[in-house]
Amino acid sequence: MKHILLTCLAAVCLGGTALGHENQEASENGYFIPAHQDTTLMDTVKKESSHKKRTVKFSFGNGVDNTIQVNKADSAANGGTSHDYGQKPKVIVGITFSRFDLGLATLMDNGSFTLSPENDFLKNRTWKTINVGFDVFQFGYRFNEKFRLFMSAGFDWTHIRLKNDIIFDRNTSPLSWQQSDIHYDKNRFSSSYLRIPITFEHRIGPDRDLRIAYGPIGGFLLNGSQKFKSEEEGKRKVKDDFNYAKFRYGAFARIGYQWVGLYAKYYFNDMFENSPDQDGLRNMSFGLMFFF
C-alpha cells in the first residue's frame, strides 16, 4: 500500500509541473488575459481556449474520481475570465483506497440471530467478532455530478472470536471439529475474500456531500484460518479453507456524509458448503465506513 501511495503522489506532482510549463499565465479552469496584452496574443489565447483542457486527478477515498476530468475554458470575449462548465460524463478507472469498512459481523441461522443446536459450537463474542475490508481498484462511469455506476475490487475479512475451546478439522467435508483439552485465551476463526461489489451511487445536496450507495456484491475465497492463544501452546495458527463457500454473493448498502458513513452487508448463500448441518447459516455485517 505504501508503494501505491508514493506512485500516485509522483504522478500528481509530474502532472502539475507539466501544466505549469505549458502556460504560466493559465488559471486553474482556463486562461487569464492581462489587460496590457495586445489583440494578437488575445486572438492566440482565444484559439487555444477553444480546445478542451484535460487533467488527470488521483484520489484516495475523498470522493473524487480517479479519471480524466474535462474542463472547457471560456473565450477572451468575456473579459479574459474563465469558467468551469461542470463535471462531464466520464470513465472511472484506477487504483484507489476507499470504502474502508470496520464493523461487527454476526451469524444468522435460518433468519434468526440465535444459533441452532447444530451450530451452537460457533457461539462467539459479539464485540470481538468483526468485519474489515476496503477497495483497491474501481472501474465504471460517472453519468453526472449526482450519479455514478462502477465496479470495484478489494479485500474483506471476517474474524469470529469463538467462545468454545474447539479445533476445526482440516481437509474434511462436511465441516467438523473436535473439543480441545486446552483452554484458549483466544480462539479466532477467520475467512478472507476478494470482494467485487457493483455500486449505484447517488450524491445529494448542493455540494453533493450526502451520498447513498447500494448494489450486489460477490466474493471469491482467498483462505481460511484458525488462530489460537493459550498458556500451554502460546500462539498458533492453522490455515485451511474449512469448507467456507468458494464464492459468496449478496447485497450491500452505504450512506455517508463526505468521507465517513455507515454500511451493511448481507450474503444470500450459506457460509459453508458441503455441510448439511450448516444449511441456512449466513453472514451479515454492519458498522462504520471511511473514505466514501
UniProtKB/TrEMBL annotation:
Q: Which residues form the Outer membrane protein beta-barrel domain?
A: 129-269
Identify the InterPro entries for this entry. Beta-barrel_OMP_2
Please list which residues make up the signal peptide.
Answer: 1-20
Q: Does the keyword section mention Signal? A: yes
Q: Which UniProt keywords apply?
A: Signal
What protein does this entry describe?
Outer membrane protein beta-barrel domain-containing protein
Domain of life of the source? Bacteria
